[in-house]
Amino acid sequence: MKKNLLNEILAPLGLGLLSAALWAGDTAIVDGQNAEDVVGQTDAGGNAVFTDGTPYDSQRLEGFNLPYDVEVDTVSHRLFVCDYSSSRIMVYDLDSSNALVDRTADRVLGQTGFYQNLNGTTANTLNFITGIDFHAGSNRLFVADQGNTRHYLRRGHYF
């Protein structure tokens, strides 16, 4: 039975470190602690939805289709979320303290728009990405593009 409650996690595949605190909260993590915030599950008003994941499991602006990995750029203040089944990376702007500005993605990499789900082999498309790594010193995002059997590199000023 699929559950999506405030203090439950369903099939997590990535974890990020944000401002020296786990993404789940900025205090010590304890058993049963509620999530502090969420991306990938928002209602029409942009509010967090913690109790129902099904309508968000697709290639849309508000949801993910099997998120696999996350990375934080603490210099340019961005959060990258690897969305495996939608073959894309969602990019969220963060404020100067690296907290979410809002819960709406600001850019998408690997697709031509937020609602597309086309696997590709071109320089601007991806095919089932399984991991990402951001290197702040060179301002580069490294992508494991499993479906194309390649590693993909994006330089910072393009995203």
Helix and strand arrangement:
Blueprint: E1 17-18, E2 21-22, E3 67-73, E4 78-83, E5 88-93, E6 107-109, E7 129-135, E8 140-145, E9 150-155
Antiparallel strand pairs: 1-2, 3-4, 4-5, 5-6, 7-8, 8-9
What features would you describe in this structure?
Helix content is 0%, strand content 28%. The protein contains no helices and nine strands. It has strands at 17-18, 21-22, 67-73, 78-83, 88-93, 107-109, 129-135, 140-145, 150-155. It has a four-stranded antiparallel sheet, with no helix packed on it. A three-stranded antiparallel sheet has the order 7-8-9, with no helix packed on it. It has a single domain (17-158), classed as Beta Barrel (Thrombin, subunit H). The protein is an all-beta fold and 159 residues long.
Q: What is this structure, in a nutshell?
A:
The chain has 159 residues and is mostly beta strands. It is built from no helices and nine strands. It has strands at residues 17-18, 21-22, 67-73, 78-83, 88-93, 107-109, 129-135, 140-145, 150-155.
* Oligomeric state of shown chains: single chain
Q: Helical region count?
A: 0
- CATH class placement: Mainly Beta
The tally of domains stands at: 1
What is the third-level CATH name, the topology? Thrombin, subunit H
As laid out across the biggest beta sheet, the strand order is 3-4-5-6
Fraction in beta strands = 25-35%
CATH architecture: Beta Barrel
Please provide the count of β strands. 9
What's the gyration radius in Å?
15 Å
Q: What sequence of helices (H) and strands (E) makes up the elements?
A: EEEEEEEEE
